[in-house]
Design goal:
Blueprint lengths: L8 E10 L10 E4 L5 E3 L5 E8 L1 E8 L6 E7 L3 E7 L9 H4 L11 E5 H5 L7 H4 L6 E5 L8 E5 L7 E5 L2 E2 L20 E8 L13 E7 L7 E9 L3 E9 L7 E12 L8 E13 L3 E15 L5 E2 H6 L8 E3 L2 E2 L4 E18 L2 E24 L8 E3 L2 E3 L1 E26 L2 E23 L10 E21 L4 E19 L5 E20 L4 E12 L3 H5 L10 E13 L3 E22 L5 E23 L2 E24 L5 E13 L6 E12 L2 E10 L2 E2 L9 E2 L2 E13 L7 E9 L10 E9 L4 E9 L6 E9 L1
Parallel strand pairs: 1-7, 11-14, 36-44
Antiparallel strand pairs: 1-4, 2-3, 2-5, 5-6, 8-13, 9-10, 11-12, 13-14, 15-16, 15-46, 16-17, 17-18, 18-19, 19-23, 20-45, 21-22, 23-24, 24-27, 25-26, 27-28, 28-29, 29-30, 30-31, 31-32, 32-33, 33-34, 34-35, 35-36, 36-37, 36-38, 38-39, 39-42, 40-41, 42-43, 43-46, 44-45
């Protein structure tokens, strides 16, 4: 059959083949770099990309377990190619993360972002904002401008329930289980790709994923020597300066790279300033059968505290007001800061004696140390274990003071894996990790109006936390036929945690807990035709309580571990001009830890286990390119997030805050905190001229409740944001510059007032005649219209 091109349009077709077995490869990814058009190989290995104009194209073919294929072709007619992919040699850095990732034929809902996609928005904002356009993600920032303390929720799950790894090394803090992105400023400039797996996912290393996992692969390697300088500026006196340098490949074996970055911003919220510095150094040696890579990276942050949020009253009168550090009327302490430094060391070794067996071993060490400083007005000496001061007949029992609360921690261990793939129909991965965390917590007074019996070297509390973890997994992948694929995953985790010493409220801490978790997962995929894949999976994850859960349960039986049973099913469609996916999920929780409203001795909310809760929903994503220079993309996530029943213990006080008694309230079928029913994103991208790109997008987030009781007096309103992204890129062949990129981000075009994050508590009072309730809501307002502009030069 002869295909006659119409109006100068041509096609590229072909077949993807294993270079050793000569068998077709199903699900290989084929992309044209110039216009991002692409396809996936079908059950017979064939693919086709149509409606292409005459010209030069760089075709890129990738498939897990194989080396990438790249070739420039000049299209003047229809072309048919046979592309042979070679099994991946260990000199390819991506093997480090292969055991934690999934591919086109997997039964997992996922999104992968490469370096090119990340760099389009990387003008200084924290990492969560670069992931904000992916399905079900809501990002937020204490400072309101996306720089400083920021985070994200995926499927309504908070940061402590999102498993994050860097090159397979766990990033989540061992005690809080959260991720502090502020400790990794400008890390996106050192990232090769990111894969977000929603639901249980693979969760190979680190704590169980209860909403999603984020697998980050670093990479600055360049075949040719280069120097890249990035500078950007924007609203709120924001600026980012980055220098990247690479030696290129020396004698085809050695590569050295470095990145230096500094980011600063005044923040949208008052005094919510940030000064962030970081570096990334990487060296790689590649032999014929082995590969060794050393990564050293560090982040130093000094941020003025804005984590208390903005009250109901101030949200209406002055939404940028920051009460943190207030000494008196219109008087604030100028060093109310968080000051923390974190250094990471990673050594990765890969070895392959034969082409179908690959081994990997990684050693890692992370050192963190820092404090947050606070001015305190009229604090009682008893809260710090100090004696009253007696001067004659006068007794002084409180004082203004400045305190620092320190964290000094070490995290170290190893990860290891082996991948055996004797042919294109079977692959098995085995691996695991062994990690140890040691954390010292202590506080000191560096100044007091009345010093009493204390000195600035005294620790008013001192405690330690030690956590050890052993993890083993086995993952078989079987291609039963050219259409049917089966995946398995068996994981065992052993976790032990000890806490000893004196807490900041002078309580004695003594916790020693151990958990054994068995986490099975299974998935089935069926390729209906060359473009369509159907899949279904089941996964189980278990998660230990965090540090605060243990500490606040000292007098009781202690918290139970949480369990998630995750059921997922979906369809994936991939053609030359349209890619889409719909995914259905039901995440059933057992003993999920939720806030109760009860407070401990220092006013910190306490969590308890609720027997049953669930997140059930659907996710849709698509990319459609009807024309060569025009693309529509978007995603939408709808979910129902409910707690079946729980009891809340609420203390009742008299009007002068004397404790009277407790009230127990039972709630049923309520919404889970900060879990919007709708999160949707849409974008139009056009390229009117070569190198010039415009993207206009919109994001909608439905209302969210600030507690687990579906109370309309404690919620965040829905919001719709619109942004415009413009960039111009030009490559040079005979110039001192190899590439120049000019970027401009216009955020929140219509100056919408919105708050994506907040918290709430209430107090019951009994005045003798009635019991009434006071609500206290706090919000994190985000900036109105703002901009970021940058220039990137590559030499």
């Amino acid at each position: 059959m002869m295909v006659i091109p119409a109006y100068g349009q041509f096609s590229i077709a072909g077949k993807i083949i294993d270079a050793e077995t000569e068998e077709p490869l199903v699900g290989a990814n084929i992309v044209l770099r110039e216009n991002s058009k692409g396809a996936s190989s079908g059950s017979d290995g064939n693919f086709e990309i149509i409606n292409l104009k005459q010209g030069k194209y760089l075709i890129i073919v990738s498939f897990i377990g194989y080396q990438d294929f790249e070739e420039e072709i000049e299209l003047t007619r229809n072309i048919n190619l046979n592309i042979l992919l070679k099994p991946r040699a260990l000199r390819i850095e991506g093997f480090v993360v292969e055991a934690t990732r999934v591919g086109e034929n997997s039964a997992t809902a996922y999104t992968t972002l490469d370096k090119e996609k990340l760099s389009k928005n990387n003008l200084g904002q924290d990492f969560p904002y670069l992931l904000d356009n992916t399905p079900g993600v809501v990002s937020f920032s204490d400072a309101g401008a996306g720089i400083g303390y920021s985070g994200l929720r995926i499927r309504g799950s908070d940061p402590s329930r999102v498993n994050v790894t860097i090159n397979g090394i766990p990033l989540n803090d061992s005690e809080s289980q959260g991720v502090f992105w502020v400790d990794l400023p400008d890390f996106a400039s050192s990232v090769q790709s990111v894969q977000i797996q929603r639901g249980v996912g693979t969760s190979t290393n680190g704590s169980g994923a209860f909403g999603a996992s984020i697998n980050i692969e670093t990479g600055l390697d360049s075949v040719e020597p280069l120097v890249q300088i990035d500078n950007s500026f924007g609203s709120f006196n924001t600026r980012k300066h980055t220098l990247v340098a690479s030696t290129g490949l020396i004698k085809e074996k050695l590569n050295l790279n470095i990145r230096l970055s500094e980011i600063a911003s005044d923040g949208y919220i008052e005094r919510a300033s940030s000064l962030l510095k970081s570096y990334f150094v990487s060296g790689t040696y590649s032999g014929i059968k082995n590969n060794i890579k050393l990564n050293i990276f560090s982040g130093k942050e000094v941020t003025y505290q804005a984590w208390d949020g903005v009250s109901d009253f101030n949200l209406q009168t002055d939404r940028t007001f920051n009460a943190t550090g207030q000494i008196g009327p219109n008087s604030f302490y100028d060093n109310q800061v968080d000051d923390y430094n974190q250094n990471h060391y990673q050594l990765h070794y890969n070895y392959s004696a034969i082409s179908n067996l690959a081994l990997a071993l990684s050693l890692h060490y992370t050192k963190g140390k820092g404090f947050f400083e606070q001015y305190r007005v009229d604090d009682d000496f008893a809260d710090y274990g100090f004696n009253d001061i007696v001067i004659g007949t006068q007794v002084i029992s409180s004082s203004d003071l400045i305190r620092r609360r320190w964290l000094d921690n070490d995290f170290y261990g190893t990860t290891f894996s082996a991948i055996y793939a004797p042919g294109s129909t079977f692959k098995v991965s085995f691996g695991g990790s062994a990690n140890i965390y040691d954390g010292d917590h202590f506080g000191e007074i560096i100044w007091a109006q009345f010093a009493g019996n204390s000195t600035n070297s005294d620790h008013y509390y001192d405690n330690t936390g030690r956590k050890t973890e052993l993890n083993l997994y086995l993952k078989p992948e079987i291609n039963i036929s050219s259409q049917l694929f089966v995946f398995g995953d068996i994981q065992f985790r052993n976790v032990s945690y000890e806490v000893n010493g004196i807490d900041n409220d002078q309580r004695i801490l003594n916790t020693d807990k151990q958990f054994d978790f068995f986490n099975p997962k299974i998935g089935v995929s069926f390729r209906i035709n060359s473009n369509t894949l159907a899949y279904a999976s089941y996964g189980r994850a278990n998660r230990e309580p965090d540090r605060n859960d243990f500490i606040d349960s000292q007098d009781g039986a202690g918290p139970k571990h949480e369990t998630l049973n995750d059921f997922e099913a979906g369809f994936r469609y991939s053609a030359s001009s349209l890619k889409s996916e719909i995914n259905l999920y039901s995440m059933q929780y057992e003993n999920q830890l939720v806030l109760t409203g009860e407070l401990n001795d220092v006013g910190t909310p306490i969590r308890i286990n609720v027997d049953q809760s669930h997140r059930t929903g659907a996710e849709l994503s698509f990319t459609w390119s009807p024309l060569d220079k025009l693309e529509f993309s978007g995603n939408a996530a709808y979910s129902v997030n409910k707690i079946k029943e729980f009891e809340e213990t609420a203390p009742i006080f008299d009007p002068v805050f004397n404790y009277l008694r407790d009230s127990v309230i039972t709630y049923a079928d309520t919404d889970i905190i900060l879990s919007p029913s709708w999160v949707a994103f849409g974008q139009i991208t056009c390229i009117p001229l070569s190198g010039l790109e415009f993207s206009f997008n919109g994001k909608y987030v439905a209302e969210q409740f600030l507690d687990n009781k579906s109370n309309n007096n404690r919620k965040l309103d829905a919001f719709l944001l619109n942004n415009l992204n413009m960039s111009f890129t030009r490559n040079f062949s005979n110039s001192i510059f190899r590439k120049i990129r000019i970027s401009l981000l216009l955020n929140n075009l219509f100056n919408v007032r919105y708050e994506p994050n907040g918290y709430s508590y209430f107090i019951f009072f009994d005045d003798g005649s009635s019991v009434f309730q006071d609500n206290y809501n706090f919000y994190y307002p985000q900036a109105g219209f703002n901009f970021l502009g940058g220039v990137s030069l590559t030499f």
